[in-house]
Amino acid sequence: MIEATHIVPSTEVNVNYINHLLEQLTVDYQNTKQERKEIVALVPSSEEEFTILEEIELLTSDIRGYAHQIQARGWIENEPEAIERLQMMGVFDVPAIANFYFSTDGGYQLLKAYIRMLDYLRLLILEYLRRE
Question: What predicted TM-score, i.e. pTM, was given to this entire model?
Fold first, then answer.
């Protein structure tokens, strides 16, 4: 006997996965609280424009903002500009983040996992926008 299967459109799957990642990032960010405190205590004020934590916050704000638009409406305002911005905001393209990530060897694993998940969400949003 052949069973009927329900095929979910890929855009619906992507929206559901974007929603899931958005929720997971909230939890993951809360779990990095201790590591973020350690970084603030260890890293003196630098001459760089933004600290590592500020750079992560900026990326988080932008990427989560796009994800929230998809979650709420299913689309992003000014999509071509959003695609261009998302393509240019790879987390490892930010020198402070790349330096932190690759120079702290085995430390700060929760924050590093958060950074990877944030970049994954960015890529998933790009994929979603390109399929629309």
Answer: 0.85
